[in-house]
Amino acid sequence: MENLNSARPATASTNSLAQLMRSYPLSSFFILAFVLSWFWELAIVFPLNVQFPLSGVLMTICGPTLAAFIMAAITEGRTGVVALLRRYVLWRVGFPWYLFVLLSAPVLFFLGLLLFAGGFAAFHAPTASFLLSYLATYGALFFPGGPFGEEPGWRGFALPRLQQRFGPLMGTLILGVLWAVWHLPLFVFVPGYDGTTSSFSGILFAFIGFIIVVVGFAIIFTWVFNNARGSLLLVILLHTSINTSSILSLLFPSFPQVGLISQLPFAAWPVFALLIVVLTRGQLGYQRYRRETGLDAPASSGDATVTKVAG
Asked: What's the whole-model pTM score?
């Protein structure tokens, strides 16, 4: 006869794991996001040479996004999942913020190109076909690339909790470093990724520069997120703008299109991020976010410091 009590240990183990994840939502989210993404990368994408856009879907939607929805369901149930979904369609944030997320990335990258590519003497005015190509690239990168798959995790789930526990600046710095480290397999296994070379020093220098730039990105993302009432739509648009802006280097034909030097125009972002930190005194618009979302004051204990995360 089957022992009807045999399922109890498994059930108890499952409940214990869920309780542990509820007690440490941030740690659990990052572990899930890294394990899920790196599994697809190391087991499928790199060995089978899976090409974009499928590779982007596997690494991002099956990583940060899936981790975010799993943790939202575990920590807050259906309410948390619905709140996360609502952030996708939170679009009433003010027209100036749309201008910023659509134009700031190409403007900053262009300014970086002017500095590192020899100024206006190296500049070739864009043609109508180039502008159409820019728009097409923007659309192509929106869904299958990083923006749509990463932001529900980094900004949708993790950022509100990091800000509430550590404050806006420190929480953003933590997220920025972890966000950069999440990309590490690309530097190790993808030749030439973001200017890397095959040597250890080439990978190391490129990755250190990448961390600095990504932390700068993270600060600007937090500033936009907080002033846009936690809208995922706005940070997805900003992320897409950053990814698309690199094709502006084609307007400077003499500027190297590969290698570490090709990433130098992104250096404008950490500079701009530092300016935002100074102007907001490190608050990055967090007071406005708390006011407009009704977020409780910062909690105090453990990893599960969130008493309420507004949707």
From this structure: 0.88
